[in-house]
Amino acid sequence: MRTPLDALIITDGNREGFQRVIDCTHAEGPQLLFIVGEKGTGKTTLLRARQLEKDLLSTKHVTYKPCAQILDAIHACAFDEDLDALGTTDVLLLDDIEGFLEDETLGAPTAHCLLKERIDRGFTTVITSSKPIAELGEIGELADDLAKFEEFTVQPIDDDAMLSLIQSLVDSYADLETAPKLTDEAIAYIANEMDVNTTMKAKAIDFLMTQYQGEAGETLSLTAVKQILE
Q1: Strand, helix or coil at 142?
Q2: Each residue's pLDDT tens digit, 42-60
Q3: Could you tell me the strand order of the sheet in which 62-66 lies?
Q4: C-alpha 166: how far from chain center
Q5: Is the pTM of this model over 0.90?
């Protein structure tokens, strides 16, 4: 059975950082990982796959949370059990630290309080960012917290790797009897011509495979795929 992690494309440009995140639920002792890469490098896909993966050999609870959602909840005073648990979950995957730092007043202090608590308690935390720690600007006490993190840079997925990724996503629906098939040209279009990030490409594949109203197993051409996704 395929798992979310099986859909990841591991390349020379992301191997070390991706593998450390994949292995974080089995590592001895807390892991503090800071993953840097531009949009489209698969950081969000990686964190979501790590959270969705069910480890039979690990009892650690893994939580994924975009940083912007945490601040949105605080601004709305929408405190709930999920928000309260961020300080105590075994493994916290924080996506896009800029989501904190866009709020110049509340962002960095909030991130500091959360990270300090997790570091003091000895929990694993993974953070993604489009910028290295040294380029995050004036972040006060948060800088001391982030100094404890190992920083890894991941490179964009090249065209061949992206094509392999999209093909693997299409193949993951092979057991769905109602799913259509896609021509090579349609897969290549989604992989390398659609001007959206990897997450949106994955959503496009899911829409095509699960929402198609035509004949089960029908082959969709490039033209048909473009019309459906418009």
Answers
A1: helix
A2: 899 899 999 988 887 788 9
A3: 62-66, 91-95, 124-129, 32-36, 150-153
A4: 16
A5: no
